[in-house]
Amino acid sequence: MRQAEYSREYRNTCRAFIGYETEDVFLLVAGMVARRVCAEPQQFSIQPNGASRFELHVFKTGLYHGKVHTFLFPSYTGTVIYDTQRPEASKIELTFAANAMKCVDAWLNSKDLKSVQEYAINDMLVADQYPEIYFTSSEIHRLATGHF
Fold first, then answer.
1. Contact (CB, 8 A) for 81 and 90
2. pLDDT tier, 37 (very low <50, low <70, confident <90, very high otherwise)
3. Per the domain annotation, does 1 fall within a domain?
């Protein structure tokens, strides 16, 4: 049996790089080591990319009942601290740039779209006074296996 190759980079990200030839016993030991290494909470960075986006949906009432304003937050950062042993003890923190919010309603004409966006940024969020929106989770609940 060859010695397993091991590096801190892989250990810190809970990945194991195992040598070319292994035996079942070695795999069992490597699995136990990986589980022990992964027992500490892991931190991940959240940043904008083409595959993800944050949206806020505001449902209208009254005359516009059934209509929904959709606001995008293209500028945000955050962290997830994920506890593999106790996922409910994990934590999420996000920061959004309030003045970067965009209204993307297809059902509004351009004049009304501009008016809704200005109202949301200037009057609802008061972005000049509060340029960032902070979110910190207070608790995490398991919805289904692997979903929280």
1. yes
2. low
3. no
Q: Residue 115's CB: how many other CB atoms inside 10 A?
A: 13
Question: pTM score, two decimals?
Answer: 0.65
Per the listing, tokens 């779209």 go with 113
Q: Cβ distance 88 to 41 under 8 Å?
A: no
Q: Sorting pLDDT into bands at 50, 70 and 90, what band is 49?
A: confident
CA 85 to chain centre: 19
The pLDDT tens digits of the residues spanning 122-144 come to: 999 999 999 999 999 998 888 88
**pLDDT confidence of residue 20:** 30
Domain ranges, residue 23: 8-37
Residues 98 and 137: their CA atoms lie apart, in Å, by 19
Residues 84 and 98 in one domain: yes
Residues 47 and 117 in one domain: yes
Is 146 a member of any domain?
Answer: no
Looking at the fold, whether 67 and 95 belong to one and the same domain comes out as yes
